[in-house]
Amino acid sequence: MSALPDDLLRRIMEIGIQSGTLGCADLCRLSIACRRLRFLAADDSLWSHLLFSDFPSDFNFNFNDISSSDVNSKLKRLYKARYESDRYRKRQQQICAVLKLQGKIAEQSGKIRRIELQILEEKDKLDKADAERKYLCQIRHASVALNVWQPEVVRARQEQMVRQCTVPVKSRIKTVEMELSSCKNQIACLRKSLITEKRRLCEAEEKLARVNYHPLQDVEGASLKSGERRITNKKLKLSKTSKF
What is the sign, positive or negative, of the torsion defined by CA atoms of 58, 62, 65, 71? Predict the structure, then answer.
């Protein structure tokens, strides 16, 4: 590469930037390879192409706002400032998206809890209505059984059950059966709503995980775990050797 002239190397970089195969990170990596590449990578023409391609709406800049004391070019410093502000803006957007999704998850969780409480209440009503229906059916059977011969003990118990009931049995049974049907339908609708809300909650949690995902976090966590394992293995080896 030392045999190549500077103009050719600069042209190669320009072609790479114009074709999209060479980005700002690649150009920075080239600049730390050697002094020659550092000088070539700081050329204003390269960073002007990057500014125009990455930030076309902000391609109006003022050279007087940037001092020339730095070894890097003015456009490189301008690109760095614009990149940092854009990264800060994206970070703020990510934070807003995370807060919005967290609020949505809290809202969905509250809806799920309310639906679950409503289901429990409807089940309690259903159990009470079913118990009342069974009791009324027993009274109806007892009133029918009074028309036929029964032992005196059984007959007295049936008469007592019939006397204790102060409501018309047949009409009350129909009302209770309607309540049972209404409770069952209400529970079925609430269960459908619960499934829908749980599905929305899972979607919101998955979206939040995608927004919060950062590959370097997993890599750092894995490297920390591997480092901890290496430390524990060294401690075990040292303890074993000290025993001997």
Answer: positive
